[in-house]
Amino acid sequence: xxxxxxxxxxxxxxRTAVERHTRxxxxxxxxxxxxxxxxxxxxxxxxxxxxxxxxxxxxKNMQRDQSEPLGRALSRIATNALKGHAKAAAAKxxxxxxxxxxxxxxxxxxxxxxxxxxxxVVKLYYREEAVAEDVLNVDAWxxxxxxxxxxVKYKVERNPPAFTELQLPRYIMAGFPxxxxxxxxxxxxxxxxxxxxxxxxxxxxxxxxxGPSSLSPSSPSPSWTETGVNERVxxxxxxxxxxxxxxxxxxxxxxxxxPSRELESVCPVEAGPGTCTFDHRHLYTxxxxxxxxxxxxxxxxxxxxxAQTEFSRSVLYPYCAPYALELDYRQNxxxxxxxxxxxxxxxxxxxxxxxxxxxxxxxxxxxxxEGVFRIKQHEGLATFYRKAKFTLLSQHDISFHEALESDxxxxxxxxxxxxxxxxxxxxxxxxxxxxxxVLQSTKDSSKRICVANTxxxxxxxxxxxxxxxxxxxxxxxxxxxxxxxxxxxxIFCGDFNSxxxxxxxxxxxxxxxxxxxxxxxSNGEEERCNMSLTHFFKLKSACxxxxxxxxxxxxxxxxxxxxxxxxxxxxxxxxxxxxHEEVTTHQALPSVSHPSDHIALVCDLKWK
Length: 608
Fold this sequence. Notes:
It is a single chain. This protein is α+β, with helices and mostly antiparallel strands. It folds into 3 domains: 34-84 and 121-159, Roll (Ubiquitin-like (UB roll)), CATH 3.10.20; 162-203 and 222-271, Immunoglobulin-like; 277-607, Deoxyribonuclease I, Chain A, CATH 3.60.10. The chain is built from 14 helices and 30 strands. The strands form 7 sheets. Strands 3-2-1-7-6-4-5 form a 7-stranded mixed sheet. Helix 7 runs parallel beside helix 8. It is elongated and about 95 Å long. The two termini are 51 Å apart. It is found in: Mitochondrion matrix.
């Protein structure tokens, strides 16, 4: 393990050095011939771990109390070393007595039996002085100390950068970014080194230098060739179709590197679907916007929990190829679509928890975004923001029915609703939630913004329920943006399940809804709940009123919006939606070229 100057220039120099070796561990050898002993010791845990390889080739992982005297740990190491020596000697004797090719037993010949091995001397040194055996483990195992076991010396590395999780997606397609899921301890992805390999094609010459896990002629494993990509994300080309991929990565923290790891894809790269509905849209979003703009995306992803049902396959989306409804396939399209927008804010609906953690976070983090998640029941909401532009100040998520029942903020609305018991019961049964995040500009701390995200009740006859949910949402957003913060602008994204002709949309953009609006009886006279509502925001739909944002076999209409605060924000540009021809190429959505039944809204907003 090398220690490095903290500057970025020094880190780049080290990366270059690492890349000259077929394995990053070779860097350890340049610092001396010592083996490596890795110690993990954190204050919140009672034990520390110690990992090293013995001379016989066996690998030891020990757990010791941090408060234990060093002498006990060293004694245990000596015992392990002695056992290892005995096993190695027994294996050697067994090999000598094994029958040879002619059937005769090979004899070691006359001579004295080897003396019984004695326990090796085990010492720990720090700055060339032996560490006293009564020193506690937590203080004894310092970075840079030297552990000696017999004649072998180990350099102690305390808390080096390390991967705690590393995983490649199961389904990989040409033309779509491969974003490994990874978690690091004592390190960060930006300071780590990545190198991608692909299988050498059958009959191809052995690559020069070989690369990690290159083969000897007798090895049955595939050989690997470098792709030339040394970034966290790799996008396979058509030339990679039929070949598996391998990622070799070395964790770093800007000052040093930890043990490298390799992982191979389970399946080979498959052919992509060709042109997707979002490819033309990406021509408008090739670059991240400057600091005066906020590129915002709102998108209902179609949760896997809804896509993978017999009802979905046979009734809702019978026109969609079954494989195109599978999550592994759709995740490739979703990742490519979202990363290609180069957005600053992304508000997502119908997000499965596993999709958030295993797919969206790795993909969007690799492109500079960080996200937060709010579960509903089987799926939830996710909001991502560009880390170079924003920091997360606070979160103020609510469940509509819980807030309505318990938050004094909604006391007046609840008093109106209790006059209509049937309607009240239906409203309080709904599980819809509101995600609210307050962000602060990294360039100008005076610029803060309240980003809200929701998915309102879906049923076509639930108009009055959506009205009440929106009333709760706007009251809560006002509390956050005006009471908790000093009048900060609002961006409100979501799938509102309401076309522009509905009461919900009228309420949002006009600031009021009369008590005689037809939506108060959206589910018949029995559940009618006449009331007038107002809110003080001045909001408008940043992307206007498209003909549709949801297009399935039996319905198409505009259900999704990005509502903005007209007092503080204006629209710089709206990214055009896919053409009708693109949307209907495969009859409707989702399809092999579009991962959801909704269409993403994308616009660039400007601070006034």
